[in-house]
Amino acid sequence: MEPLPHPQTPPGAARRRARDLGIVIGPSATGPFNAITDVPGVRVGHTTVRRPPDVHSGVTAVVPDLVGPHTPVPAGVFTGNGYGKLIGTTQLSELGTLETPILLTSTLSAFRVADALVGWMLQRPGCEGVQSLNPVVGECNDGLLSDIRARPVHEEHVRAALDTASGGPVAEGCVGAGTGTVALGFKAGVGTASRTPDLTCGGFTVGVLVQANFGGTLRVLGRTLTPRSVGVGAEAPVPAADTGSCMILVATDAPLDARQLTRVARRAVFALARTGAAYSHGSGDYAIAFGTRPDDAPVADAGLGPLFEAVLDAVEEAVLNSLLAATTTTGFGGRTVPALPADLLLAAE
To answer: Which of 90, 140, 148, 338 is found 20 to 30 A from 182 (Cα to Cα)?
Structure first.
């Protein structure tokens, strides 16, 4: 099983993003790549792990430049529903800082991924004397399409994602941690988007990345869409109630403190409702927000409105991008989940 670090397109034919279809969400402009990497100093790496038909999994790394135990960045976390294994969340909440990259993966691989992240960090320059480290790893259950009990993500896959993390365009859909995920009845995966809101103290960038794997009924432009309504996979399987989840990562170069970043993370989880999320009993819905300017005086709370709105819009678009970039996948147990057909999306009634 060979790792596929940060491929530029998912396997199969190229897919279109929401804006390619004329779907524009919110008034704020995007960054140049409409991705979390539009925030200066933020990189993304993927390793995709496939062994068809049974294994469709992987790991995604979001890497703030220079982050480490001696150079933490401010961060906040919000739990919409806590049915998940978000490793490192208690210290992040207590101290309001992030000291490692954030990794996303499959539920039963999360613990191995956290150990690999610790090993990678301890080898970084300046970490020779480190004796305590708080790895942050989120997960979604990809067991509908992948043999989750095989725990196919290994240390070499984690290191590949970290070592190849880069700026610029971000691969979406069936890649990295999104290789086996399903959302809103369709094949989903990783999605990203950005916005450049104007705050009272200047213009900044906020970028989001989602690992989409949650239940509900898709809403696009005020319409609800199901596999049946768009003519694909009328009998497509859906995840059991205890296998949902969505991980949302938010980065910004706006000067915010940990309390304000927690407020940003809260809005990111709220945004899932716009897409039709059900927030079921078994869906672990989390957001982590971090800033890249730890030493600057924070924006006044009263000026955060445009940033909150930008986060809502970017998360909604990132979820839609995760669906549009994904491809129909047949996986473990012969189960097939259809992709959202871009050519039928706008025509659907």
So the answer is: 90
